[in-house]
Design brief:
By secondary structure, the chain is α/β, with parallel strands linked by helices. The chain folds into four domains: about 10-135, Response regulator (Rossmann fold), CATH 3.40.50.2300; about 165-265, Beta-Lactamase (2-Layer Sandwich); about 270-360, Helix Hairpins (Orthogonal Bundle); about 365-515, Heat Shock Protein 90, CATH 3.30.565. Helix content is about 50%, strand content about 20%. The chain contains 14 helices and 17 strands. The longest helix is centred in the middle third of the chain and has 57 residues, at about 270-325. It starts with 7 loop residues before the first strand and ends in a 5-residue tail after the last strand. It binds adenosine-5'-triphosphate (ATP) and magnesium ion. Magnesium ion (MG) binds next to helix 12.
């Protein structure tokens, strides 16, 4: 207690002399003292003066000391009350102690006994105050900590909520405990449907979940128990596929699994852009092929007629020379020269006809074609070259292929081009696999020709269908094979695609529309 603190005491006793004695003793001990002559007046003063210590007689007319004690303790429990009893009044003293009186002294009052009781009451008062202050201190500290905790919690909650990426947290049983707004939006759920109700596995297709768990255990995908920027897909509320990039970590505490946290990024936009870019590239490619086709068509037409004329006349001259059976050296020379002119002109005519096919200006005669029969025929024609280059052959033909409406000669030419290209790509030997399948709708027949050759450089991929694009040495390739194939397949309403990996091989995939039953 500070030095300017003054203890206040109230003495309640109907015996004025007793009250006087006690008051003097207390004043001597430094108290500021008031007296009251009965219980009612005492209570009134106690309410007004708020004394630290009250000394009250037990037996008084009107309100008894016990009643005063009970009232005082009810109104201000921190006030210390000492009761004064007669010698034979031990029961009252016990009752008073039960009602939390600090002490009792007996009449006649001995100043020493009074001072001992007063000191004890002071001590009790001070202890009680200390405890109260300490409790208040603890309470304020606790409130502050609780407030700080709450703030931190709110801040973290805000961080999670405002993240553009989806955040999903699971407990050790893999039940979802965190599911932020972005993720709720992405997957079309209300958070209340998910939290504590759904499990991690509810968001993945079982096969995909298996793959994720396998790769989570594999260090190569972002470290132990981690997946970093992992491409996968999730199931939204309507069980539709949503492509996402997933980063996932298993949380552990003292090696005990605590759960999982996932960061999820929507890939739909990126996929859409990629698709748009691919579409644009395809359109550009188609445009290029169309202009090349127009150019090829005009050149071929201009050359075709004079070439036919030259060829016809050369053949006529050769016939005349043969009939005349002239033996002069000069004639024989002429005959030889004309043969060379015929051969070279025929070669030009072949090139021109290739160009015409590419430009889709050539005539086609369509009929129902049995693709398997056509492929077997192609293989018969390639047998010799395959054997020569020690190339293995693997075929897988669906026996129930629908027929294709087209020109058998032209389609056969396409397949031969693909097979010969594959053979050219495997000078050291290898394997060709040819597959013919129909899709489930029965609308398309797919033929793929795969080799284990040297592959095509990425920079060449988009040029291989251009007429005269070749990487083969002079005299070995004209660069018309794929251009012609492209022309024929497109002319049949089909599509041709290529997949290639350097050093591993190349696969050409041709899709042709199946004939309609009628
Ligand atoms: N299976 C393949 N493996 C590797 N490269 C290939 C394959 N098929 C085609 N190519 C590449 O594409 C180019 C063009 O092929 P294309 O068939 O049009 O012409 P070519 O084979 O060179 O000559 P041509 O077919 O007129 O005799 C080839 O030169 C080659 O570089
Ligand atoms: Mg070729």
């Amino acid at each position: 207690m500070s030095s300017d603190f003054t203890w206040r005491a109230l003495v309640i006793d109907d015996d004025i002399d007793v009250a006087e004695v006690a008051a003097i003793a207390l004043a001597d001990a430094g108290f500021s003292v008031e007296t009251a002559v009965d219980g009612r007046a005492g209570l009134e003063k106690a309410g007004r003066l708020r004394p630290h210590i009250i000394l009250t007689d037990i037996r008084m007319p009107g309100l008894s000391g016990i009643e005063v004690l009970a009232q005082v303790k009810k109104q201000s429990p921190e006030t210390e009350v000492i009761v004064v009893t007669g010698h034979a009044d031990i029961d009252s003293a016990v009752e008073a102690l039960k009602l939390d009186a600090s002490d009792f002294i007996t009449k006649p009052i001995s100043v020493n006994a009074l001072m001992v009781a007063i000191e004890r009451a002071q001590e009790r008062f001070q202890n009680r105050k200390k405890i109260k202050d300490y409790t208040r201190f603890l309470e304020s500290g606790w409130t502050r900590t609780a407030r700080e905790l709450l703030e931190t919690h709110r801040y973290q909650q805000n961080l999670i909520e405002s993240s553009m990426d989806g955040i999903l947290g699971c407990n050790a049983q893999e039940v979802v405990v965190t599911f932020n707004a972005s993720l709720a939006r992405l997957l079309g759920y209300e958070r209340s449907q998910v939290i504590n109700k759904m499990r991690l596995s509810d968001f993945f297709h079982p096969e995909e979940e298996k793959r994720i768990r396998r790769d989570l255990a594999d260090r190569r995908f972002g470290g132990e128990n981690r997946l970093f920027m992992y491409e996968t897909w999730m199931r939204d509320r309507s069980a539709d596929k949503v492509p996402v990039q997933l980063s996932m970590t298993r949380i552990k505490d003292d090696q005990q699994p605590q759960g999982l946290v996932c960061f999820i990024r929507d890939l739909r936009m990126i996929h859409r852009l990629q698709q748009e870019m691919a579409d644009q590239a395809r359109i550009l490619h188609q445009d290029k092929m169309m202009s090349l086709g127009r150019l090829a068509a005009s050149v071929a037409h201009e050359i075709n007629n004079p070439l036919s004329a030259v060829l016809n006349y050369v053949r006529l001259m050769l016939k005349i020379l043969e009939r005349r059976a002239v033996e002069s050296e000069q004639d024989q020379k002429f005959q030889r020269y004309l043969q060379i002119v015929e051969k070279e002109t025929a070669r030009c005519a072949e090139t021109v006809s290739g160009l015409l096919t590419f430009s889709r200006k050539s005539d086609i005669r369509k009929e129902n074609i049995d693709i398997v029969e056509m492929l077997e025929h192609c293989l018969l024609l390639s047998r010799h070259r395959l054997d020569l280059s020690q190339i293995g052959l693997e075929t897988d033909f669906d026996p129930h292929l629908p027929p294709v409406w087209g020109d058998a000669n032209q389609l056969q030419q396409c397949m031969i081009n693909l097979i010969f290209n594959a053979i050219d790509a495997m000078e050291e030997g290898g394997k060709i696999s040819i597959q013919a399948t129909a899709d489930t709708s029965g609308n398309w027949v797919t033929i793929s020709v795969a080799d284990t050759g040297h592959g095509i450089e990425p920079g060449h991929l988009e040029r291989i269908f251009e007429p005269f694009f070749t990487t083969k040495e002079e005299g070995k390739g004209l660069g018309l094979g794929l251009a012609t194939t492209y022309g024929i397949i497109t002319n049949h309403g089909g599509k041709i695609d290529v997949y290639s990996e350097i050093g591993k091989g190349t696969t050409f995939v041709v899709k042709l529309p199946a004939s309609k039953p009628d």
